[in-house]
Structure formats: structure tokens, C-alpha cells
């Protein structure tokens, strides 16, 4: 079986740095687990503390991820019958707006009526 020579096996540079950090982390984790295994109550206290902190943060942090002006909006495009004038279209749009507000499907409405470009 081939075995690497001692001088060729020596790690240098970035690999050595990473392995050193991983070895330090391994030693720290082993020491922590050794302390916790002998004290089950310490783990229970940590779990209860975590649950209580999570519940407090849940109540304190706002639940909305988007501001109110960005939620629940939609856009409607209406096309009137051929030959319909601007005044007729405005009247129909206002009627549709009032129906949506009366139905409770919308709290407020912003309406923009534009004339179509003639080909």
C-alpha cells in the first residue's frame, strides 16, 4: 500500500487554514456537548427560553411583509362598444366603481379613463 511521505502530506496555505478552523470548531463542539450531556435540565432551560423568545418576537415584529399600499391592488381594463364616446365610457367606469365599492370588494378606487389612440 502506498503511504504519502510525511513532508508531502503536510498541508499548506488555504487548506491548512480551513482545517485549522474546522479543528477548532470540532474541539469547541465536543466540549459543549460534553457539558450538556451531563446536564439535561440545561437543555430544557435552553429550549423553553428559545420558545418564549420566539413567542415574544412573533408578537413584537410586524406581520406584514409588504406595506398596505402594495397589497390587494388590481387593475381592470375596460373596452366599450364600438363608437362609444369618452363621456359614455367615464359614466360606465364610474358605475362599475360604485358597484365594487358597494359590494365591499374594494375599500377605495382610483380611476383613470384614457381615450384610445385612433389607428
What does this structure look like?
- This protein has 119 residues and is mainly alpha-helical.
- The chain has two domains: 12-60; 69-119, no CATH class.
- Helix content is 57%, strand content 0%.
- It contains four helices and no strands.
Tally of distinct domains: 2
> Considering DSSP H and I runs of 4 or more, what fraction of the residues is helical?
55-70%
Q: What characteristic shape results from the CA principal axes?
A: elongated
Radius of gyration from CA coordinates:
34 Å
Cα separation of the termini: 85 Å
Main sheet specs: none
Tally the helices.
Answer: 4
- Extended strand count: 0
| Structural class determined from secondary elements | mainly alpha
Oligomer: single chain
- What would the average pLDDT be, to the nearest integer? 79
Beta content: under 5%
The low-confidence runs, each spanning 5 or more residues with pLDDT under 50, are none
Order of helices and strands: HHHH
Task: Reconstruct the topology from this structure.
Layout: H1 6-9, H2 13-37, H3 40-60, H4 86-103
Q: Notable features of this structure?
A:
elongated, mainly alpha, 119 residues, 0% strand, 2 domains
What's this entry about, in short?
The protein is mostly helical.
Amino acid at each position: 500500500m502506498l503511504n504519502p511521505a510525511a513532508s508531502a502530506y503536510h498541508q499548506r496555505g488555504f487548506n491548512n487554514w480551513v482545517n485549522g478552523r474546522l479543528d477548532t470548531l470540532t474541539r469547541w463542539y465536543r466540549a459543549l456537548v460534553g457539558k450538556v450531556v451531563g446536564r439535561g435540565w440545561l437543555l430544557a432551560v435552553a429550549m423553553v427560553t428559545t420558545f418564549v423568545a420566539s413567542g415574544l418576537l412573533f408578537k413584537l415584529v410586524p406581520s406584514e411583509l409588504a406595506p398596505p399600499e402594495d397589497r390587494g391592488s388590481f387593475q381592470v381594463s375596460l373596452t366599450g362598444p364600438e363608437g362609444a364616446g369618452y363621456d359614455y365610457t367615464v359614466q360606465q367606469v364610474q358605475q362599475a366603481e360604485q358597484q365594487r365599492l358597494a359590494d365591499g370588494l374594494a375599500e377605495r378606487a382610483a380611476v383613470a379613463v384614457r381615450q384610445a389612440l385612433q389607428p
